[in-house]
# Entry
Amino acid sequence: MYAQMVKSEGMKTLDEMSPEERAFQERIDRGEKIEPKEWMPDGYRKTLVRQIGQHAHSEIVGQLPEGNWITRAPTLERKAILLAKVQDEAGHGLYLYSAAETLGVSRDELTGKLLSGKMKYSSIFNYPTLTWADMGAVGWLVDGAAIMNQVPLQRTSYGPYSRAMIRICKEESFHQRQGYAIMMKMARGTPEQKEMAQDALNRFWYPALMMFGPSDKDSVHSAQSMAWKIKMNTNDELRQKFVDETVPQAEYLGLTVPDETLRWNDARGHYDFAQPDWDEFFEVLKGNGPCNRERLEARREAWERGAWFRDGLNAYADKAAARRASASIAAE
Amino acid sequence: MPSLPDMTTPDVMALARDAAASQPHDPHLQDVDLKPAFFDWLCRMGDNTAILGHRISEWCGHGPVLEEDIALANTALDLIGHTQMWLGLAAEVEDAGRTADDLAFLRDAMKYRNVQLVELPNRDMAHTLMREFLFDAWHVEMLTALLQSGSPRVAEIAAKALKEVGYHVERSSDLVVRLGDGTDESHARMQDALDRLWPYAGELFLGDGVDAAVAKAGIAPAPGDLRAAWERTVDAVLDEATLRKPEGRFDVHRGGKQGRHTEHLGFILAEMQFLQRAYPGASW
Ligand SMILES: [Fe+2]
Ligand SMILES: [Fe+2]
Ligand SMILES: [Fe+2]
# Structure
């Protein structure tokens, strides 16, 4: 998922709540949507800003690993599909920043926090894309994992967030299918293509499992977020669902999931699988992933090099407004 | 934005055959004498959009503001879509078993037919946008003229592409005006871009034997016929942008249309063609 380890404020029981807080919680329990102008607890607002902001940043930074292959796409059609996909991701960023703006925080403010490292984006985008098969693996596994989290979030309690998720989910499922289509071509292609496909799965499997975040079954933050319906499932539930859906897809491709302990557990009705290396996950969050520095640098450079462009457009807008104002005075 | 093909369609080839069968009959496709010139001319159209689309796509994820990231990707996507149509028709005309992808990914620089303007590096947004504007202002006139083409297949492609290119020229003109008349820095950058790109713009209007043959067959206008309309657009936009039209010749750098390129094209192709070259015969 694109928001990992989002901290929310501590959890209160209905008895400990103020009348306002209780009425708010009861609305959520009834399945009502909360809209921007309505009263909400401070913690609800802050948690949502962190979560939506982190999700938006992930869409934006997420352009980079795939953008890396646009100029090397092997056919015109693949190039067009990849361009459309990366364009969608930028669009998702835009919807999400707009949703965050309804909570009183501007896009520039959030961007500033991303570039200064105060806010995070998903750990997955700190991994490199090394071969064309990675365009398949990213669509299949990364967009696939994102969908696991985002489909339930369509029912989240905050209206603008829920509506953004509904728009985004439609496009994400297309992304996942096109990623899988690339994997299919590669897995059934030449021996070299099949080798690339297997290598991509080997490299992206565990980082994809990390996208859901460490187990949060005992976390108070998660419990509060779930009570507020800004988190709909535990991390473990979503990870299990992802594994259960993905393993048969890998088998269909004739590829091997890089987990020797992976097996179907009849009693549980789920696959048993190995956890990713959580030390690696925390290292990546700290900035020690393979591409953290490059990704953030790329975004900083884009922002800094774009300053004259943004200033130019603003200056023109000011001049045009002044010209309109003096024209209307002259007309009076 | 063009609609993307449905990835789940089981038999894409059957769909392509149906689509081909529904194409209007075009006698030019069987004209043996015309073939070499018609093929070359179609490659020029498709190579221009392929290489410009490639350059613009280099911005992906690195734009100055999110709306620009989206607009640049969208423009590149349109141009790649046009490339598929032009090179697809070129392959049909050639009738030698090559596909649009073969033409895009397996021709070396010598065989590429784009004007040099589109292969120059992006440098910054000022150069990227000014180049787009100089090209778009030509592109829209060319496609408009091609609506009247004696070749129904060419006219059909032009009609599809024109919808998008009308928007491209609107967007690039608007940005040239705003940035030209923005801050001192944005003005200076736009002027610098214009001065640098100007000597490459004229190649769009230079005709040769290929152009003459295609014009004679009633397929396309002679390149020089588009110049007056292009100059009107350019003069008006530069004037509003408070930019100074360079005094020097605008057709200094030429030869791209005949396969003589700048040093930059080889690097574009090395990148673009890497997979097709490294894994010959693989299907992607
Ligand atoms: Fe997305
Ligand atoms: Fe995504
Ligand atoms: Fe996506």
Summary: Chain B has a mean pLDDT of 94. The radius of gyration of chain B is 19 Å.
